[in-house]
Specification:
- By secondary structure, the protein is α+β, with helices and mostly antiparallel strands.
- The chain has one domain (9-106).
- Helix content is 17%, strand content 33%.
- The chain has helices spanning 53-57, 71-83, and strands spanning 9-13, 16-24, 28-35, 43-48, 95-99, 104-106.
- The protein has a 6-stranded mixed sheet.
- The two termini are 21 Å apart.
Length: 109
């Protein structure tokens, strides 16, 4: 399954073209990335964030973790995932990580 083109963004890392998107979760956001021109294995990174709680608690947001993703974050996630044996040209289930604020670790379901 490929990422929806209308809701995704593009990024080039080490001459490879990736598409990525962010999905909301409860207490976290999920960054999903894959190669733009190849239907291979996806990357999913779970990042702690209270971004959805913003609308529930507005305007009292000072205690919330409002983590947003920037292109340099995506580059970090993709490069570190590649170092941890993510092969985006390989078929298979998504490779899933969690981000602890410093590094990626494989996420246990």
């Amino acid at each position: 399954m490929t990422i929806n083109k209308k809701s995704s963004r593009k990024i080039v890392i080490s001459d490879e073209h990736f598409v990525w998107t962010v999905s909301p979760g409860s207490g976290y956001i999920i960054m999903i990335a894959e190669l733009e021109s190849y239907n291979g294995r996806r990357l999913e990174v779970y990042i702690e964030s209270d971004i959805d709680s913003l609308w529930v608690n507005f305007p009292n947001t000072e205690h919330l973790n409002l983590k947003i993703l920037r292109p340099k974050d995506l580059e970090f996630f993709i490069k570190q995932s590649l170092e941890q044996d993510w092969n985006p040209k390989e078929k298979g289930a998504p490779l899933v990580f969690k981000f602890d604020g410093k590094q990626l670790t494989k996420r246990l379901n």
